[in-house]
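Running log. JK asked me to keep both predictions on one page so they can be read side by side. First protein, sequence followed by its tokens:
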Amino acid sequence: MIGALAKRAAGLVLTAIVAVAPSAWAAENDILQAVVGIAATIPADTRSAESLGTERIGSGVVIDGEGLVLTIGYLIQEASKIAITAMDGKRSSAKLVAYDFDTGFALVRIVSKLNITPMRLGDSARLGDQDSVLVISAGGERPVTAALVVSRRPFAGYWEYMLDQAIFTAPPHPLHSGAALIGEDGRLMGIGSLFVSDAVAPRVPVPGNMFVPVNDLKPILADLLDKGRLSAPARPWIGVNTQDVSGRVLVTRVTPGSPAAKAGLVPGDLILGVGGKPVDGLVEFYRALWARGPAGATVPLNVLPKDASDFKMRERPVKSMDRGEWLKTGRSY
């Protein structure tokens, strides 16, 4: 089965390379100018500086006439300075508008007027397997590349993050962070998040990119513009990095000082369930975790400790918190 999927994926990637003339498509739809470069400076004493660095570079997309830029959140997480560079080389500073942990989207506002025509939002639900797309970044030797959508499926990240219908494309774009995913109608379909090694299906070794669907932005945009975050209570966050190992949730890192650390979890522990109900992999684990209530709720984890000699499961009550209170993500506009 995996071999057949890999052969299918190779065919899809070849089709993507030859099926589209990316530069001509981009020029025809006049969409290149809406993609801007983003450079963010992050203080060294912030929570994310060690893992994500203090100087971050990527792309974003102007989505309204007042310089609102949609990008991927990790680029500007805890940033003290954000700079924007347009395709014509003009530069401006930008201010944080909003950061949504659930989707991973961030919004920033360009301070100086750069006369950029915004890109229209598309309907990402219409994208399916083998649909042709463009991926556009703000820099690099080949900022515009052709690709194909090779799968739509849930994505679970090790950092307590999940999308129900992520967009996976191939071949990969090297400068994917905040890059624009453009449909055949010239509209924005998603924002680049990650390089992945299994774009077609889990455990099928085909490299590609994962994009956050733009439809995930639409129901929350008003909240983000008004409040800088969702008006609904935040999800519970416990501070563990995990890995799906044959359906078992393996703890690979515990954030120092986090709720999980205070509850005694350590790398090597196995999370087998939540509240006495077994979980099969990261997707089920996150759904069970977030179903316990808003941030602040106590989450009864069922854990097989790393050093357990009797192979008996223990309950570890973890008092969750709001991830936004852990990070220094203050709104600056």
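And the second, directly underneath as requested:
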Amino acid sequence: MDLLLDLITTLSRWCRGNLHDISLAIMATLFVLFGPGINAWVQRSISSFNFFLRTLIFVLVCAVGYGLAIVFLTPWLAQGLGYFNNFTLAPVLLLVFFLIGVLADRS
């Protein structure tokens, strides 16, 4: 049991040092998974606008919206994950990546 706890704390300490990169990977993966649905919703919402306005809104949503979301949401996610202690951080991250994998498999 001590060996397992040592492994978990060692993994958690390593993850804590790379938490920003891990959070960026989570955010990017979520945008890849949910981006097509968001884009389809935006296209349905703006379908009645003229071509120029539709194109402008779509570019703003994709380039500016997704870019700002990744830039500003990644530190919040890293900060939120930083609240877990060394006994729970690695299992929580494994669970998060497992759930993302399940979501990716279903879509």
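Observation for JK regarding the second prediction: The radius of gyration is 18 Å.
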